[in-house]
Write a structure and sequence with these properties.
The chain has 158 residues and is an all-alpha fold. It is 83% helix and 0% strand. The two termini are 38 Å apart.
């Protein structure tokens, strides 16, 4: 039973970290919005389970890279309040890692989804005629995800 309480505590800390990153890191919210669009397009272009797995992996890797960049920036901000070239290089390298990860995700998206993108329009029309409720609910889910992603949060000043 003790292990279950420890797991619950660890889960609570992890969720608090996700909440903090969500509220403070605007780029993370943009990337979640982009991932929502990717998943919607993948859903309606009929990607296979393997392609879905690949798209989920690269999308989540961008989010993980962004969160690690945020952690590094926050930590280095605590280490020194003065400008230091090594700190600047570390922050720039972390941002570069996010850029590289995001660029890789775009390449994977184009390789996986691009060949089927031409069928998106006809699939959406077929979906509208035969699966209206499902299509409307998925479009609403993406719109809500985008709205939440692009919501402005006040950044704490500490």
């Amino acid at each position: 039973m003790r292990g279950l309480y420890r797991f619950a505590g660890d889960l609570s800390c992890a969720l608090a970290g996700l909440r903090a990153a969500w509220r403070e890191e605007e780029h993370l919210r943009w990337q979640v919005g982009a991932a929502s669009i990717v998943m919607f397009v993948a859903r309606w272009t009929g990607q296979s389970a393997g392609e879905w797995a690949l798209l989920v992996m690269v999308s989540s890797s961008v989010l993980v890279a962004q969160m690690l960049n945020w952690v590094l920036e926050r930590t280095l901000g605590l280490v020194t309040l003065e400008y230091h070239p090594s700190v600047r290089k570390a922050k720039d390298a972390a941002a570069g890692a996010v850029l590289l990860t995001a660029a890789s995700a775009v390449v994977v998206f184009l390789l996986v989804v691009w060949p089927d993108l031409g069928s998106l329009g006809p699939r959406l029309v077929r979906g509208w005629t035969s699966h209206r409720v499902q299509l409307v609910s998925e479009v609403l889910a993406v719109l809500i995800a985008l709205r939440v992603s692009f919501r402005t949060y006040a950044t704490p000043k500490d």
